[in-house]
Design a protein that fits this description.
The protein is α/β, with parallel strands linked by helices and 670 residues long. The protein has helices at 16-23, 43-51, 62-74, 90-100, 113-117, 141-148, 168-178, 187-195, 199-205, 216-223, 239-283, 302-356, 360-437, 439-457, 461-479, 484-499, 505-518, 546-561, 576-598, 602-619, 625-638, 651-666; strands spanning 4-8, 28-31, 34-38, 56-59, 85-87, 104-105, 129-135, 152-163, 179-184, 209-213, 231-234. Among the domains are: 4-31 and 166-237, Rossmann fold; 36-161, Rossmann fold; 503-528 and 574-643.
């Protein structure tokens, strides 16, 4: 499992940095050394801030954006009007953009106040009005610099930072045991941390790796005694930059460890080669070759190791016995050859002596020399036999030592394998015990996962909140003290989900259903109404009116005989069938919009309502009161949000996932 990370950061809903670290697989231990508390703002002040025309508005932090937005919602105010909004970094911009719906500028070169002041549009600010939304007792660099450049600066302090260091002593042992990296992005929080930890923890903190934004925090760490090699500066304070720097540290450590292992292997190989060369020089002086030592057994693969040891022992014993047999045979042959040569020389000497006419004194001297030669040869043979016997004994002793070493290595490997089996059995029993004792944690993890699915796939906020409350009650009843941090984060997630706006699609569907019958009674536009012919004059039955009757009959015949119709894309007149087709088309669009609303399909919902409005504008009387009322109601329904903006993940789920992985893999229970 990866080493732990201590995140010095105030508690907040779904912290993106903590989520990013947990997604990379790091166990995160979050420690808040200060609390962010909203400051009550007077209604007159908020009204002044919102109704003044500003040249620029600067929002310092994500907390300032969120808290200011809540104050505006409480007092039913909108965001201040300004030529442009500014933030120090991209993180604040991401939070501010959906809240204020304004164009936002931040310095791309670096996410600091100094980089923001370096923007060209902030160089000359004479007689301009600027608003800074910040926290109480924050840095005065922006306000002072803008004032020096001629701006009238108003500071809106919307929150305050209150130290919270009571929990530090309890958490220090946990950090020293599990944490290898510390991430902090605020100088003020860093000072609170170092000023309130024990001396032993300060020594530990000076030896771990620190991941911080470049600039003032690194200098402050140096003043606290942290070596510069332990300080790693990120480009800025965004989660992406901090996690990227952490990954680079991990890769660098892995490469260093690989290089160190390679050097160790090379040194070991050189030492073995030197030892082999020295042994070869010693054995070349008339000593038998030293048997090859057995290989160091590898952990695991017990069967292969046992076979290897047995084969090596048999081969060494066979080679040693064969070598001794060859030495003995060579020694016996050499001794027999020397004795045969000496016997031949003696026989030849005895045969040659009478022929040479030697005196008795000379024969005696020759016999003495021969006796001395025999004795010398016998002594030489005795010494050689003694040396060979000692060499044979040494060889046998080496073989016996090798056999004993092989047996000892085999016994050691057997004992080690037995210990490993015992440890595995104990770990298995402990794991089973932990699984049985932590069933409530696993069940809570499943409940939170089901709550996320209810939010993202069914948009059922009520069911999701019910599942989260069940998980909270389960952890609280089992061991509230051990899961205090998870329970606290779960409560924050519940509050966050409760604060989200709820979309009542049932009401929208019912309103669309009630509107469908009213479409049939809407009056058609006069441009498309069928004109009623003038009432035909009745033909008189009086014979005296025969001239008028002939004239009327001819006019009727000629009008029926020749008709001229004009088509400009749409019929100039709509008959009953065409009108029924248009009204049924509008009713169908309203039905589709009703189904889209019930299934939270925002695009389908808006497109179908737009098509219904198009038909109403094209074919119906827009001056009629019923048409105006129906059109206004459809327009209002179209603007209602259909797709709830629910979170795709919860920080509680990530924290439970880390705890469950720790139980299943590393065996660290509570």
């Amino acid at each position: 499992m990866r080493p732990g990370i201590l995140l010095i950061r105030p508690d907040q809903h779904s912290d993106p940095l903590e989520l990013a670290l947990r997604d990379l697989g790091y166990p995160v231990y979050q420690q808040a050394v200060m609390d962010i508390l909203p400051l009550p703002a007077a209604a007159e002040s908020v009204k002044t801030w919102c109704h003044t025309s500003w040249h620029g508005v600067i929002v310092i932090s994500p907390n300032a954006a969120r808290i200011f937005a809540k104050q505006l919602d409480k007092q039913k105010e909108t965001w201040p009007q300004a030529e442009n909004y500014y933030t120090v970094g991209s993180g604040t911009c991401e939070v501010l953009m959906p809240l204020c719906q304004k164009p936002i500028t931040y310095p791309a070169a670096g996410y600091t106040s100094e980089h923001l002041l370096a923007l060209p549009e902030l160089a000359e600010l004479k007689e301009q009005k600027w608003l800074i939304i910040t926290g109480k007792n924050g840095r005065q660099l922006l306000a002072d610099t803008l004032s020096e450049r001629g701006a009238q600066v108003t500071i809106a302090e919307v929150y305050e930072r209150r130290p919270n260091v009571d929990d530090l002593p309890k958490a220090e042992p946990l950090w020293q045991e599990n944490v290898e990296y510390i991430v902090v992005s605020s100088v003020e929080q860093l000072r609170l941390f170092f000023e309130n930890i024990s001396d032993a923890t300060k020594v530990w903190a000076q030896g771990v790796h620190w991941v911080v934004p470049r600039g003032r925090i690194g200098k402050q760490l140096t003043e606290f005694g942290v070596p510069s090699k332990q300080i790693h500066g990120a480009e800025n304070a965004t989660p992406a930059a901090l996690t990227h720097t952490l990954q680079l540290i991990r890769e660098s450590q892995a490469m260093s460890a690989s290089t160190s292992d390679k050097k160790t292997d090379e040194n070991a190989s050189a030492a073995k080669a030197s030892a082999a060369s020295t042994s070869g020089n010693e054995n070349s002086s008339s000593k038998p070759p030293k048997p090859k030592p057995t290989a160091k057994p590898k952990r695991g693969w017990f069967g292969n190791f046992l076979i290897f040891i047995l084969l090596l022992s048999v081969l060494v014993l066979t080679a040693g016995g064969y070598w001794l047999w060859q030495q003995q045979q060579a020694l016996a042959n050499e001794t027999a050859s020397q004795l045969t040569s000496i016997q031949e020389r003696l026989t030849q000497a005895e045969q040659n002596e009478p022929a040479a006419g030697l005196s008795s004194a000379q024969q005696t001297r020759v016999q003495q020399e021969l006796a001395a030669m025999r004795e010398e040869i016998q002594q030489q043979l005795d010494r050689q036999f003694a040396n060979e016997r000692q060499a044979r004994e040494r060889g046998l002793q080496r073989l016996d030592n090798l056999r004993q070493d092989s047996i000892a290595s085999l016994q050691t490997a057997t004992d080690q394998n037995a210990r490993q089996i015992t440890q595995v059995n104990e770990a298995l029993r402990a794991s089973n015990a932990r699984q049985s004792s932590h069933w409530h944690l696993l069940e809570a993890f499943d409940l939170v996962g089901a709550a996320i699915q209810r939010l993202n796939f069914e948009y059922n906020r009520t069911a999701a909140l019910q599942l989260l409350r069940q998980a909270e009650a389960l952890l609280s009843d089992s061991n509230a003290e051990a899961y205090q941090q998870i329970i606290r984060q779960m409560q924050r997630d519940i509050e966050m989900i409760e604060a989200l706006p709820q979309v009542n699609t049932q009401e929208i569907g019912l309103r669309l259903q009630r509107m469908q019958p009213s479409v049939r009674n809407l009056p058609i536009s006069p441009d498309f109404s069928v004109a009623t012919d003038d009432e035909e004059q009745a033909i008189s039955s009086d014979m005296s009116n025969w001239r008028e009757n002939i004239t009327q009959a001819w006019e009727s015949f000629s009008s029926d005989l020749i008709k001229v119709q004009r088509h400009d894309g749409v019929p100039m007149r709509l008959d009953n069938d065409q009108r029924a087709l248009i009204t049924s088309r509008i009713e169908l669009q309203l039905q589709i919009a009703q189904q889209a609303a019930m299934n939270y399909h925002g695009d389908y919902y808006r497109n179908t309502i737009d098509e219904a409005l198009y038909y109403i504008d094209s074919f119906f009387d827009l001056q009629n009161r019923e048409v105006i009322q129906l059109k206004a109601e459809l327009t209002a329904l179209r603007e209602l949000p259909i797709e709830p903006e629910y979170p795709t993940g919860l920080l509680t789920h990530a924290m439970l996932r880390d705890r469950v992985d720790s139980i299943r893999n590393s065996g660290n229970g509570e």
